Amino acid sequence: MQSYRFCIGLIFFLVITSFQDVLGDRPNIVLIMADDSAADNYGCYGSDYFETPRLDALAKSGVRFTNCYSEPVCTASRVKIMTGRDNVRNYVAFGTLDKSELTFGTMLKTAGYATAVAGKWQLHGPPNGTLAKACGFENYCLWNYPGTERPRYWNPSIVKDGEPLELADDAYGPDVFTDYLIEFINQQTPDRPFFAYYPMVLTHSPFLTTPKSGIAKREGGGSALLNFRDMVAYADHCVGRIVDSLEAKGIRENTILIYTSDNGTDRSLKYPFQDEIRVGEKAYATEAGTHAPLIVNSPGRISGGRVVEDLIDFSDFLPTLAELAGATLPEVKLDGRSFVPQCLGQKGQPREYIFQYYYPKFRPASEKHGGGVNENEIIWAQTKEFKLYADGAFYRVDDRYEATPLPALGKAGKAAEQTRAMLRSVIDSMPSSGQKLRQAAIR
Q1: 0.85 surpassed by pTM
Q2: Is the Cβ–Cβ distance between 225 and 269 less than 8 Å?
Q3: What CATH number has the domain bearing residue 67?
Q4: Which DSSP state fits 407?
């Protein structure tokens, strides 16, 4: 037994060492997450309507993942990405990150990283939400945080390192957040790596003009869709500014930049995509509500020009960051697995499936498949091709709005039935109800 353990330990050491040899010294890490912007809102994912040249360039010179999945709505995705744990284990309520959860901010700070967060917080709600410093962020510049009010774009309400900002009437929130992170980056020294987390306020409603819209900044302007298009372009512009700051400081090659989004596009929007008109499905547990972009770029560390079709779940981000940083994983039950090998062109441990748990604030989302607490818990598992809900509903993943269920059990064909059986075993192996949701309901 001791010999067996020694061999396993040696293999683990050699694998980690090989990754460190490829990655070299610990990299700086910038994680950017857009708000309410599905994968099809980007040129590199096939859109010929939205203009995202900086992100398209990052995808072309980096790694673009085609099967990354968020949760259907913001809090669920943010709790999952920050903790590496499925929502069935840690979701409490909308707007709440349970203060007992360990986050990637704490993990990287403990590993010696300088840490900062800027943008949208919205995780401090009752009954037991938490704040930035408790999540490991030494520096913060945030909206939807204690002391702020509703405006996030023009004349925004923002708290910076504990103090409300006094801003000009024509101040634009995304510029304030981007400026803050650029300042943070410029203040860092070579002897300490940094982690900058940028949960953007863009492109969430209200759909307003941007400083680059070319029309009156705060009044009038285009339709909601035209303004949303400009907001996507401005998110791309903000990413470009951060990339430029890294290059100006001479640390671009030693920085890994990751870009994703927290859920699908707003339900009020209809937008062109190639030869069709698509509808936003934010808050729905559909392909349209959960298919997120994922771009990883680091010219000095990750060879570019690759497209990876492996399944990626939001719980995978924390272990990925841990491996990049050489950090120790939190001693809790994690659901993610690192996708560093895929970034490096190796096979890694690709997922066969993703498990999802969702308790929607938007009650119509649970009308089809809700169960459990308040008939509002939605549970499903999926592969790249098929998707099974806990209630037995079975779909092809490419059925974007889940309009056509597959035939009843035993009638969907051999391949589909094999996948259905596997997904059922996955669902049955996980908790059948939200563990912290029930605790919160009892209190």
Answers
A1: yes
A2: yes
A3: 3.40.720.10
A4: P
